Amino acid sequence: MTWASTTGWERLRSAPLVVEEHPLTNPLLGTHLFAVPVTALYAAFNLFLTVGLSINVSRVRGRYNLWRGDGGHADLIAAIRAHGNNVENVPLALLLLLVTELCGGNSMALHAFGGALLVARGAHAFGLIAASRVQMVGSLMTLGVQLGLAGYMLWLRPWG
Q1: R_g of the chain computed on alpha carbons
Q2: CB 98 within 8 A of CB 39
Q3: What tens digit of pLDDT does each residue of 26-38 get?
Q4: pTM for this prediction
Q5: Which CATH architecture has domain 35-155?
Q6: What does the domain layout of the chain look like in residue ranges?
């Protein structure tokens, strides 16, 4: 029975999947590609959050008919910073998640880090927009995820 002929439930109950059975290949270079499903999942979720924050900035700008700067409006400043801070922090965290996944990180641990990152960024954005202390919780969680990923990656000993 090959991997492709089994149902999802059978795969779940079976022995771990052997990736070499169906390697992904770069058609131009003939080199093997690596699947990084956990990183891809949280990259998509964080993209949705970033797009939502971007739409919020446009919505608030439209309310004031202001397309450059912030005009000194506190809610527009908060919306701009919520989006900007997300764009500043998410790429590094996703890069850490990617490298940790490529170094052989445990799938459940990677999901825990990815989920915590998404919650942290959502909390930070909400806290900025709503002027709440949740912002600080989100900020500290983001730092914790980044430091935790770096520590876990080093614990995996990627250098051999």
Answers
A1: 20
A2: yes
A3: 667 666 667 899 9
A4: 0.78
A5: Up-down Bundle (1.20)
A6: 35-155
